[in-house]
Structure formats: C-alpha cells, structure tokens
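Curious: explain these tokens?
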Amino acid sequence: MRIIELNEETKKDILTNLLKRSPDNYGEYETVVKEIVEDVHINKDAALFKYTEKFDKATINADNIKVTKEEIDEAYAMVDENLLEIIRKAIVNIKEYHEKQKQYSWFDSKDNGSMLGQKVTPIANVGVYVPGGKAVYPSSVLMNVIPAKVAGVDNIIMTTPCDAAGKVYPMTLVAANEAGVDAIYKAGGAQAIAALAYGTESIPKVDKIVGPGNIFVALAKRTVFGHVSIDSVAGPSEILVLADETANSRFVAADLLSQAEHDELASAILITTSRDLAEKVSVDVDAYIAKLDRKEIMQKSIDNFGYILVAKNMEEAIDTANEIASEHLEIVTANPFDTMTKIKNAGAIFLGEYSSEPLGDYFAGPNHVLPTNGTSKFFSPLSVDDFIKKSSIIYYSREALEPVYKDIVAFAKSEKLTAHANSISVRFEED
C-alpha cells in the first residue's frame, strides 16, 4: 500500500479522490436507469420480466416470480445446520440492540386546557432489496428486516436476483424466512426498485425501499425518491483504521482488506502516528492479498482507494478521520475509549484490537447499513427510526386558546395571511 506523509495538501487530494466513488459521479448510467424505471412504471410486469431475462438470463413470469414455500423448504435443506444456528444467534443480538431504539407516542397535558403530543406509527409497507451479484448478503437481509419488524411494520416484502435457473441463493431465503419477511420476489437491479416503487401486477407497491445494491440500484433509488421513501443512496464500502504504535500490524492489515474485498471502488485507509506500523501493515496487506480469494478486487481497491497516512500526532490523525467521516472506523490505540470521545463523524465505531469490522457486519447487533462517502457528517446508521413516522398532536380548549389568540392573529397578519388570522379570530367574534 502507498504510504503518505499527512499534511493539508495530501489530505485535500485524498478527499477529492474518495469523492470519485460517489454515485453522484456516475451520470453516464442515469439515462439507462431512468429508461428502465419509466418502462417498469408504464409496462409493469412485462418490462420487469424483460429486464430479468436480459440481465439475469432467467425466464421469470407471473407464475414463478414469487418464491414459494416449497422453494424455502428446499433452501433449508441446503443450508448447514450450524450456519442456521449462527443466523438465529445473530438475529437475537440484532433484535435486542434495535429494541432499545424503539420510540413511543407521548402526550403532555397542561392545566390551561392544552395537550401536545407525538403519535408514532410504523410505516405500513416496506420493500427490502437484497443484492445477488458479485457476492451474496444474507447478513443484509437481517440488518434491513429486523429493525422494520421491531418498529412494527405490517408488511415486509423482499426482492432479490435469481440465477439463470430461477433459483435464489439458499442462505438468502433462509435468512429472510427467519427474519420474518412476508413475501419474496425474484427481481433485481433498477427494474426491481421500480417495481417496488410503482407496483406491478405481481409485485405490490411499497411506501419505503431499503437495502444496498450496485450503481444501477443506487441510481434507481434516487430516481424514485419522493414517490416513495428510501433509506439512502449508498456508495461503495469503506473502512478507516486509526492506530498508534501499540496496534498489531497483522490485525490492521486483515481489517483493511475485509472491506477492500467488497468492491473495486471500496476504500481502505490506515491513519497512524507510527511510521514503523505503516511499513509493517503495507507488507502484511501484500502478503494477505497473495493468499486470499477475491485478490483482483482487493488489489484494485487498494491501488485506487487505499492509503496509509502517517500523521505527526494523534490530534492530526483524529482531525483527518473526522474529515474523511468513514462508514466504518476502527480505533486501535493505547486508550481507544479516550480516542473515541474525540470522534465526531463515523457510521460505526469499533474499539480495540478484538472489535474488528466483520463483528459488526454479522453478529454484534448494531446495524451494518451505514452512511458512506462522508455522509456520516449528517446521516446515521439504519435504525428503527427509519421504519416509523411521527404525527404531531395538538389540542387547545377555548380556555387555552383565548389568552393567546390575539398573538396568533397578529403573527398571521404580519405575514399578510389574513385567512390564517381569520381562522383564529372567528372563534372569538362575540368578544
């Protein structure tokens, strides 16, 4: 990996390079995506089946697009019992974590005859998209479905690509069934997002779409946003390790590659105060790539978006980490809890040398759907909050309104909205 002395100029160059990974910078795909979305919007199933045959080489129709109970039973028979037990353990952890995020309706009454409050209501229909291209992600099924279940969503449907034979990856089906998905459809890509957003003869329209995907899925979600809600327009995966001289170079190198193997556009960055650690990690990264699978993907990721940055001190290292605002941030320092208090921007923070990023991907409980491309400066991880909506509750009796109604009338008239003012004053005309 390239080793760079950190300064204002190199930091600026790196931030510019990382932004190239944003879905906003792939405008050449937008026309294609909009054509697919509009085609499915107008022609529904006919367009959906056409694109499934074109892109996934699968013959799908109204009779076989929905996954049957028999197909799910077949998937269970193909999944190792040990893996099934691991999925169930992970579900317990994810559910317990997200249950602590639940919000409840509240009401506040006052002696003057007013009552204010907030009514919390689950979103009625949610669509979960699960990728099935370069890798398969049953873990993403759990991370998207379980918070929706905890929130109380009534209807959760899932779309995921099938293979040329019309089969869905068995672990994906098992994870969906264990998590409580209500229906599963064989559809992928931008066409699946359009089907969820607008509805077809086979796939019902939803109110919100969540789940990761490739650039076509990301751009399709952005296209339908406003007609339905979405979780985010996610970019490629990224990890930043913040380390001092106490870190184990082999652990750090392994963790950097845990994200580099996702995608050629994935980003893996080490910021350290130790030149010695930097050089050791560079050597260890090369050694791991030589013996791991997906080496071509990892090598391209490291070559294009991999950095080892050597900072003058920990303050400079922390400032840079906050500026990059990584999706995943590992802190491997002598006192990681103290370092963590100075972090302002990160999707998920992993503390200490035994809290590696895949722990969060699969098992610990916090959600692995995280803000990317610096958006952790203003976005949060997927949570129960993403599957609820809030309504304000306002009640005033005559006795509560009377002392303040003239203030409201004056405010409305200051904005030259006389109908607003009249709506209040008409209630006290006899006065």
